[in-house]
Amino acid sequence: MYTLLWMVIIFSTIGLMILVSLKKRMESKLAFIRAAGETEESARASRSIILWIWSAVAWGIVSMSLISWWFNHYFG
User: Fold this and answer.
1) How much is the pLDDT for 1?
2) Which helix (H) or strand (E) holds 16?
């Protein structure tokens, strides 16, 4: 039971730190897209922003699933 708890805590903490650290880079890419307009480099930057958003959503879903799983094992 404690192994599952630590797995949830470590996964959530590391994922949150990675998302926060990449946030500033994504903000600068968004500013570049706004300034550059329609270019090949801005299209590549927009794809990386979309990938970052999908990654954040996937991390959130997995984190919520792990937390629910832990609560089910602890209280169930």
Assistant:
1) 63
2) helix 2-36
